[in-house]
Amino acid sequence: MHFRNLPGEGSLAMKVLSQPARRAGRVLRRVPVLTIALCSMAFLVAAKPNLNSMLACDAPSLLSGQIWRIWTCHLVHWSFDHLAWDVLTLLALGLICEVIDRLRFATTLAISATLIPPVLAMTNPTMVYGGLSGLDIACFTLLVTTVTKQAYQRRDRLMVLAGITFLMGLVAKILFELFTGSTIFVQSADVFVALPLAHMIGAASGFLMVLPGFRIMLRLPQVSIGQGDISPIREQTSIKIGIKSSHQ
Q1: Taking the alpha carbons of 66, 68, 71, 73 in that order, is the dihedral positive or negative?
Q2: Which of 46, 73, 86, 198 has the smallest set of CB atoms within 10 Å of its CB?
Q3: Which range marks the domain in which residue 169 is found?
Q4: Residue 247 belongs to a domain
Q5: Domain presence at residue 225
Q6: Which helix (H) or strand (E) holds 38?
Q7: What pTM value is reported for the model?
Q8: What is the per-residue DSSP string for 45-84?
């Protein structure tokens, strides 16, 4: 017995089979996989303290060719307090930034993660660097400057004022660390010293992402943040996450 496929039957079957994959792709785009991965790796490294000496960054190790430390050092933390503040901050910021624009978020992390350790090693050859705080500052600056820029374009004065206030708070935090040598949130006096230069580089990395010339150079798509939705133009979709000017 022979069965003949009806016209269009094959294409219809393909469409039906592809629908679950498309739904899975849309769901995955809304899951902050990079943020979850980074936070999980930081916890795994913290569970194996003997890894710190292999992953932390210092000038002699870089000069000897151990280049991987440039990126692995961000997973190293010197105390539970240090780990908790860094990971929880990245988790909170990543849940927003990565859902808004994963490409821009990943680019910000890549730039800050790559620049911070070598610059610190050159300016302070005796220092041993570890921690996610520089990346936290980069994500914070990315989020605040993006929201503030969009608010200015919408002439939303309240949101612009809120954004400027947050940025001034960041500047005050870095200045406090610069002049006192201590951190504001983490109890670090007996464990490590503050490195405000790492936070300056992180802030600069996040700020670069909102500059039109830098975005065009990296061929990053423009992102429009509206009242209550965040819609990457390249996808022509709106991801509703409830950001409104009244929720500050």
Answers
A1: negative
A2: 46
A3: 13-232
A4: no
A5: yes
A6: helix 33-46
A7: 0.77
A8: HHT-GGGHHHHSEEHHHHHTT-TTHHHHGGG--SSHHHHH
pLDDT tens digits in sequence order for the chain, 248 residues long:
554 555 555 555 555 555 565 565 565 667 899 999 999 999 999 999 999 999 999 999 999 999 999 999 999 999 999 999 999 999 999 999 999 999 999 999 999 999 999 999 999 999 999 999 999 999 999 999 999 999 999 999 999 999 999 999 999 999 999 998 888 878 766 777 888 999 999 999 999 988 876 666 666 666 655 444 444 434 333 333 333 334 44
Could you tell me the two tokens for 181? 């040598």
Token pair for residue 115? 């620049």
200-to-120, 138, 172, 204, 231 alpha-carbon distances in Å: 11, 9, 12, 6, 29
144 vs 133: CA distance, rounded Å: 16
The number of residues making up the chain comes to 248
Assess if residue 248 is contained within a domain: no
Distance CA 122, CA 59 (A): 7
CA angle 85, 95, 208 (to 5 degrees): 85
Most distant pair of Cα atoms in the chain: their distance: 87
Whether 93 is covered by a domain: the verdict is yes
CATH code assigned at 133: 1.20.1540.10
Cβ-proximal residues to 89 (8 Å cutoff; 6+ apart), any chain: 132, 133, 136, 140
How many domains, in total, are found in the chain?
1
Spatial separation of the C-alpha atoms in residues 55 and 19, rounded to whole Å: 43
